[in-house]
Amino acid sequence: MKMDFKGITGEELTFKLNRVKLNPEDKLDIKPQFSRQVRKVNGNDKLNFVSLSVKIESTEQEPKPFDILVTLVGIFEVEDIHGEAEERKFVIEATKLIYPYLRASVTNLTASAFIAPLNLPFISGPIFPEDRDQYAFTTGSNLN
Q1: d(C-alpha 5, C-alpha 3), whole Å
Q2: Does residue 32 or residue 22 have the better pLDDT?
Q3: Coil/strand/helix, residue 108
Q4: Has this prediction a pTM greater than 0.70?
Q5: Contact by Cβ (8 Å): 66, 11
Q6: N-term to C-term CA, the chain
Q7: Which residues touch 11 (CB under 8 Å, ≥6 apart)?
Q8: Please, are residues 65 and 115 in contact by the beta-carbon 8 Å criterion?
Q9: Mean pLDDT of 90-113
Q10: CA–CA separation, 102 and 6 (whole Å)
């Protein structure tokens, strides 16, 4: 498998301040939710887009001082993928490559909002549990 990273773009970066009163003794549990989508371009199987998102959302049960949604899309040209195992390996490697950009975007977004910068955890292995055990995601080929 040959993977060539062509670039990255910010698809969505949103920040909303919530007027939530938190008790000083309460520990704030941010609980970021990660998601990923992989798409291929119709007519060009070599060109792949890997979208990585993080969402932090306040709820009534778990109030948070802000809502964040950051989605970044990595563009990759991939050749010589033979079978699901190599496709899985590509998606895992692409995710690892995009994640540091996602971390930096969240930190910069919160700092730009003039609040204490939020640093997502450093992750050295697979981000998604399904990347550790089995091929549990799908790739779509309907990119318009």
Answers
A1: 7
A2: 32
A3: helix
A4: yes
A5: no
A6: 25
A7: 51, 71, 72, 73
A8: yes
A9: 96
A10: 17
Q: Could you tell me if 35 and 95 are in contact, meaning their C-beta atoms sit under 8 angstroms apart? A: no
- Token pair 């930096």 is found at 104
Q: Which residues of 105-120 are buried (b: 16+ CB within 10 A; e: fewer)?
A: bbeebbeeeeeeebeb
Confidence of residue 133 (pLDDT cuts 50, 70, 90): low
- What's the rounded Cα separation, in Å, for the pair 46 and 75? 11
Comparison of pLDDT for 141 and 85, the residue scoring more:
85
The strands making up 66-79's β-sheet, listed across from edge to edge, are 2-17, 66-79, 44-56, 33-41, 139-143
Q: How many Å apart are CA 74 and CA 51, to the nearest integer?
A: 6
Note the pLDDT tens digit of each residue in 30-67.
889 999 999 998 888 899 999 999 999 998 888 899 99
Amino acid residing at 9? T
In CATH terms, 2-115 corresponds, of 3.90.550.10, 3.40.50.2000, 3.30.830.10, 3.10.420.10, to: 3.10.420.10
Is the pLDDT confidence value at 142 over 60?
A: no
- Strand residue runs (E) in 18-93: 33-41, 44-56, 66-79
